[in-house]
Amino acid sequence: MSQAELTREVARRVFASEFNDSTYTFKESDDERAPNFALLPTGDRANRAFIVGTLTETEDVGEDSEYWRGRVVDPTGTFFVYAGQYQPEAASILRETEPPAYVSVVGKPRTYETEDGSVNVSVRPESIAVVDAATRDRWVVETAERTLDRIEAFEEWEAEQEAPESASTAPTNEYAQMAREQYDSPVVNYRNDVIQALEQLEEQEADATA
């Protein structure tokens, strides 16, 4: 594997609603050490995610050893974060932090299939930190911008595919193509989530200054 492939992947900013819909995972190499990616419905890949939200609940769900589950809520939904003996620092934060508290999490998407055949997506944290409200608010704004960028690129690609005269010269967007093949969710849903998140932020700021 080349040095470039060994470098750490960028952590994507993504809202809970889209993250939880990212049920398709893939590798881009047969190498056993090749990174595993979650396919975002807005047409990008994520080996790591950067999330910020309110830690509303923690619970030790382990049987033989500690295995902590945290619920982290953003304006669009809930992330589930799991940390055990292989993530001792993250597990320690979940054990010691009293909800509710704002936290930032960098971690890897993990999917698992339930008994009824549905796929749930969770976060295996590399790091967790308690943060302030300003950090959470800044994350909401930046994640909204990144999400809109992905939606715009996806919609441009889609429009080019539907224009016969430009189809042969249209640039390829392999992740948008994969997302259209794998998911039923129209990307406008995530645009609506962005609007909802920013409106909620504005309401909170208005309440704080009232």
Q: What Rg, in angstroms, do the CA atoms define?
A: 18 Å
CATH class: Mainly Beta
Q: In the residues, how many domains can be counted?
A: 1
pLDDT average, as an integer? Answer: 91
Work out the number of β strands.
9
The CA-CA distance between the termini, in Å, is: 57 Å
- Biggest sheet overview: 6 strands, mixed
Order of helices and strands: HEHEEEEEEHEEHHH
Number of helices: 6
CATH topology-level name = OB fold (Dihydrolipoamide Acetyltransferase, E2P)
CATH architecture designation = Beta Barrel
Find the CATH superfamily: Nucleic acid-binding proteins
Explain the overall architecture:
The chain has 210 residues and is α+β, with helices and mostly antiparallel strands. The protein has one domain: OB fold (Dihydrolipoamide Acetyltransferase, E2P) (Beta Barrel), CATH 2.40.50. The protein is built from 6 helices and 9 strands; from the N terminus they run H-E-H-E-E-E-E-E-E-H-E-E-H-H-H. Strands 1, 5, 6, 7, 8 and 9 form a 6-stranded mixed β-sheet that branches. The longest helix has 29 residues, at 133-161. It is globular and about 60 Å long. The termini are far apart.
